[in-house]
Amino acid sequence: MPFADPSPAEPELPLELERLASVALAHDASLAEVELVEVQLADAQARGVSIKGARLADVDLSGARLEHLAMTHCALSGCNLANMQARGARLEKLSIEASRLTGTVFSEATLSDVTLRGCRVDLASFGFSQLTRVDFEDCLLVQSDFLDAQLERVRFTGCELTGADFRGARMRRCEFRRSDLSELQGIAGLRGAAIEWPGIVELAGALAAELGIGVLDAD
Question: What is the pTM of this model?
Fold first, then answer.
């Protein structure tokens, strides 16, 4: 049985969605049961936006500032969320595939039942956030940070986590499988996680340093 079982719940989308060619985001705007394809929303600024029961394909939200964004039962594919700032966001029952989240800020956010597949999430920040039943599958997470984040039943499978920062993180029933954990920061933040043996070996030096164990040269 997987250590982090069960898997995140999948989003439930309405059978019929209203397709929008364009949309303007205003403070406290609400979008429901819509499909957005190739919509340009780069650098948009709006607080309290709510999106529910929606499909987003090739949508550009790069550089957007969307504090307290709420997304529920949504599917995103091929989207550009690079450098989007969504402090205090609430993301629930989302699937995000083949999308770019480089430098995205989800600090002080709540993520539950979220799956990210084949995404670039490098240099992203989940600081002080709470992640529950979140799967990162085949994602690039180089130098991403989970500073002081709470992670429960979070899985990293086939991910590149070089230089990722888990200082102050608190984990419960999390998994790391087939992932590159080199140069990881905040080894103590992995307490409560399960790691495959090759990953344990890769972390041996950092674990020894964390415990104050010196390394002797072989005679």
Answer: 0.93
